[in-house]
Amino acid sequence: MSPEMINLIAASTGETLYMVAVSALIATLFGLPLGVFLATSGKGELFAAPWVNRVLGVVVNATRSTPFIILVVAIIPFTRLIAGTSIGTNAAIVPLTIAATPFIARLIEGAIREVDQGLIEAARAFGATPLQIVLKVLIPEALPGIVLGLTLAIVSLLGFSAMVGAVGGGGLGDLGIRYGYQRFMPEMMLAVVVVLIVLVQAVQSIGDRLARRLNKRIRHA
Amino acid sequence: MNAPLGYIGDKPSQRLIPVEPIVRLEKVSKTFPGRDGQPVTALREIDLAVPQGSILGVIGRSGAGKSTLIRLVNGLEKPSSGKVIVDGADIAALPEAALRHARRSIGMIFQHFNLLSSRTAAQNIALPLEVAGYDKAEIRARVEELLALVGLSDKRNRYPSELSGGQKQRVGIARALATKPKVLLSDEATSALDPETTRSILDLLARINDELGLTILLITHEMAVIRNIAREVAVIEGGRIVEQGDVFEVFTRPQHEVTRSFLADESGRALPPYVQSRLTPEATPGSQAVIRIGFRGPHATDPVLARLARDLAIEANILSGSVDEIAGRPFGTLVVGVPEASVSTTLDFLNKHGLDTEVLGYVA
């Protein structure tokens, strides 16, 4: 493999990591409160607001059911408004974030719902406010599940980020399409796939290890 | 209305003066919306007073309404009608913020402990204090005190998954006591524990009641819990309190069917199977009457059967018997068979000696 190729792969890997890291961070910032709210706003729950809950649920589902590539194109005006441009790595972060936020929200909702209802009851019984229950009981108890959910979301983002190459987003997917496919360089395609496999593997094992360390429900030897 | 009598301090022997009970339920009813739109009534017109410093046990089968009852006391459930007065405040009428504040003086422990798995024993105990806004130094000192009280100082840094059931409940108790409550609610706190651990947890609760003067309201489906720790008992069935009073009185002279059935679960109260299977409600000539004799307090040690034989020449046939301790007082039960012809003479004789009798049936 030529040094130029290696440079290309290194640069594209950097772009991918940048897009995924920034969009994962912003999506978590929005997705965490949204997920917590979805998990606690049903009928009879801490922040009971069944109608808001239902409407948010529909919005979340709608965003999640829109194919990513269509979402990318459909929100171009919005992307331009936020990023100032509709092409490039920064522009790609906008649709990635929008796709990841409801996904992360649902994963966090699931992790929060796994928390034993008895803990909420106990916290109410000693006088905790709903916000204290969220911050001191629900999130800490759900943390292993939340970490696993975020790991899954980052892995998915790695996949999505390959698609933004189609709108000039850059990154490994873009490299694979332009060199591997359009210029028919199978070794480039292979290299891209291998790098992605390594990235996914790394993210997953870091996430698993962190979740295991946070999980105090199981005895550690 | 006159204030009901209650005990100040721990022992019934201490002076008896009228005090306002710390927890009082007045005509409390609770209805839940049912699945098919038909409302389900969990509690009907409950009147209950828990005197300050006492241990009151509510016993009932599952579904009798006892869980709902205990949750009314700290406002986890709101009554459909009636009043729940705790330490002078109507819990049901308090706005949320005031209710949260009031809950700090009402501790609660649970069947499944409800400890945070992500926090150590010490951190679990600290949680109510963090929530109440204590500063770090205060929390540390108080947690140490509580760990020592429940005998877990050496387990402070263990996570709940590393503790036994009994130890988890001790953490639960320490957490419930963190904000120095006046009342402790115990929701089947020993139901998930083995008999020996149950005993040690009950001893701890009794000690806390004694040393801190803490009022305890507990619900259970186990007679042993009531017998070992409670001073007063309320029997609940179908959302109503069917019998209520001093534990010894209620359990040695049960008036209601449900109370009797709880007693029947106790060892020594049940008839031996070979008698039970042959028991008929009607006497037949030559049959034996099966009589249950209850010995209370001072009579528990009288040689009454010997006298029966000597004075009346009636020979009683002992079928089963036991001596139990209820609320710290001895209580004996003897099931005997006597010839059907001498039943009334025997009953007169026994009643004259101050014993409780009950004819259970006849055996041919």
TrEMBL record, chain A:
GO terms under cellular component: plasma membrane
Cellular compartment(s): Cell membrane
Annotated TM spans: 17-39, 51-76, 82-105, 146-168, 188-207
Protein's GO biological process: D-methionine transmembrane transport
Membrane topology: Multi-pass membrane protein
InterPro entries (alphabetical): AA_ABC_Transporter_Permease (IPR051322), MetI-like (IPR000515), MetI-like_sf (IPR035906)
Predominant place of localization: membrane
Coiled coil: none
Alphabetical keyword list: Cell membrane, Membrane, Transmembrane, Transmembrane helix, Transport
PROSITE patterns in the cross-refs: ABC_TM1
UniProt domain ABC transmembrane type-1: residue ranges: 13-207
PANTHER family the record matches: ABC TRANSPORTER PERMEASE (PTHR30450), D-METHIONINE TRANSPORT SYSTEM PERMEASE PROTEIN METI-RELATED (PTHR30450:SF1)
Family: Belongs to the binding-protein-dependent transport system permease family. CysTW subfamily.
Protein name per Swiss-Prot or TrEMBL: D-methionine transport system permease protein
UniProtKB/TrEMBL annotation, chain B:
SUPFAM superfamilies: ACT-like, P-loop containing nucleoside triphosphate hydrolases
Pfam families according to UniProt: ABC_tran, NIL
Cellular-component GO terms for this entry: plasma membrane
Keywords on record: Amino-acid transport, ATP-binding, Cell membrane, Membrane, Nucleotide-binding, Translocase, Transport
Gene Ontology MF, one: ATP hydrolysis activity
SMART domains, sorted: AAA, NIL
Start and end residues of each ABC transporter domain: 23-263
Biological process according to GO: amino acid transport
Domain of life where this protein originates: Bacteria
CDD domains reported for this sequence: ABC_MetN_methionine_transporter
Matching Gene3D superfamilies: 3.30.70.260, P-loop containing nucleotide triphosphate hydrolases (3.40.50.300)
Function: Part of the ABC transporter FtsEX involved in cellular division. Important for assembly or stability of the septal ring.
PANTHER family for this protein: AMINO ACID IMPORT ATP-BINDING PROTEIN, METHIONINE IMPORT ATP-BINDING PROTEIN METN
Family: Belongs to the ABC transporter superfamily.
Name assigned to this protein: Cell division ATP-binding protein FtsE
Record lineage: Bacteria, Pseudomonadati, Pseudomonadota, Alphaproteobacteria, Hyphomicrobiales
